[in-house]
Design a protein that fits this description.
Length: 425
């Protein structure tokens, strides 16, 4: 039976080609690892790299400042190196081996295996485990490659942009950002109209978690409460719909509507009010509020319990909260005449810890996203202080950012309740 392949021996030329191929594989692995590392850095990682002010850290920030150029360099180098590896590997196999059949199959399978394993899979797995270290380690060689391949990257970027423009020719799509800019330039007769227009523009992009009442602010009734306790809770809170839980607020059993209790208001403390519970309506944290508004209309409900992916209660949202995103604050005779902040003097204010950062920026007449570089995933002033401090705070603790000093004035358990804000002149 004829052999499929014969070995011809190794020459000096083959050894040189092998060395070059190994070097190219290392370059391919480096570029693949850098792709995962650079594009996996979070805002917190970038902020910490900026704060440390190291040479490699500055290179990382510089590379990320032009993402298009970075990605184009990675793609060009990766593809160029892989093509060279394919050509060299084919030459090496042709010189060292004689194939009597299945030559193309052997070469294609072998080269594909080598490229995928050592040039793609292993480097990316390694980079996923420590992407910040990998990004810092590879910042200098990637910077050199970007400088070398800058002309090719420029051509690739501008060619792709031109093709995108040609493909989008004739379309009249307007982005949310462009529409928001148009609203900002619109002259209206009052600030209320301007706020309403801005609310309509941002409405479709707002998620439930951005406007919900947080878990700690939910007024709820335990399933074991007496009728007198229920009535007392209703009077103290002033709410017309209240969630009811069994043992823990993560186990919401239903919602109690005050109007359902009116016929039984004179009943004794042992009245079985639990039979009046209505089914609770649950929604995920990342649902868009315009979709939720449609669901409220179709299901004829006015209140939803917000849960995370594990089913744990994270907050509560009402129909009124959604409408306030468009028309602004809605107040009635039952609402207390209180604000979320108090002005103590020209530079000092007292804010509730649960005040949204956007509302704080509006009150202080700051640009939106002023604290974006330090707030991480925080939505409130209390969360902002925790993000800056990176640890729990005690009464009297102070943090500073962008010319403002934030001091903890009162705590409710571990929750920051009141914050004194001082604007530095």
């Amino acid at each position: 039976m004829d052999t499929i392949v014969e070995y011809n021996g190794i020459t000096t030329s083959v050894i040189v080609q092998l060395v070059v191929t190994v070097v190219l594989l290392m370059v391919s692995a480096m570029v693949s690892a850098s792709e995962v590392a650079f594009f996996s850095l979070s805002n917190n990682d970038i902020r910490e790299i900026k704060e440390r002010r190291t040479y490699t850290g500055d290179l990382v920030i510089k590379l990320l400042s032009d993402v298009d150029s970075l990605l184009a360099t990675i793609l060009i180098v990766n593809n160029l190196v892989n093509i060279c590896i394919v050509i060299l590997t084919a030459d090496i196999m042709s010189e060292t081996l004689t194939f009597h059949r299945f030559e193309f199959l052997f070469k294609s399978v072998f080269v594909t295996f080598i490229l995928l394993l050592f040039g793609e899979i292993l480097p990316k797995i390694f980079a996923q485990g420590s992407y910040r270290k990998v990004a810092l380690f590879l910042a200098q060689p990637i910077s050199v490659l970007r400088w070398i391949f800058r002309p090719f990257a420029y051509i690739l970027i501008h060619t792709s942009r031109r093709i995108s423009k040609m493909a989008a020719h004739g379309e009249e799509n307007i982005s949310i950002e462009e529409l928001a800019d148009a609203v900002d330039m619109t002259e209206t007769s009052s600030d209320e109209e301007q706020k309403m227009l801005s609310g309509i523009v941002s409405f479709v992009n707002t998620e439930v978690e951005e406007i919900m009442h947080a878990r700690v602010d939910i007024t709820a009734i335990p399933l074991t409460a007496t009728f007198d306790e229920v009535k007392r809770t209703i009077i103290d809170s002033g709410f017309s719909r209240i969630p009811v839980y069994d043992e823990d607020i993560d186990n919401i059993k239903g919602a109690l509507y005050v109007k359902d209790l009116l016929p039984y208001i004179k009943e004794g403390s042992d009245f079985g009010w639990q039979k009046l519970l209505r089914k609770a309506y649950f929604v995920p944290m990342h649902k868009k509020i315009n979709d939720l508004l449609e669901e409220f209309q179709s299901h004829k409900v006015h209140m939803a319990i917000v849960v995370d992916e594990y089913g744990a209660t994270q907050g509560l949202l009402s129909l009124e909260d959604i409408l306030e995103e468009i028309v602004g604050e809605i107040s009635d005779e039952s609402d207390a005449d209180e604000s979320f902040f108090t002005r103590l003097n020209d530079t000092t204010y007292m804010f509730d810890g649960k005040t949204h950062i956007v509302d704080f920026e509006r009150v202080m007449e700051l640009d939106e996203d002023t604290f974006a570089d330090v707030q991480g995933r925080a939505e409130t002033l209390a969360g902002l202080m925790l993000e800056i401090n990176r640890n729990f705070l005690k009464k009297g603790d102070k943090v500073s950012a962008h010319g403002y000093d934030f001091t903890v004035e009162a705590l409710d358990g571990r929750r920051i309740d009141k914050i004194k804000v001082v604007r530095n002149e």
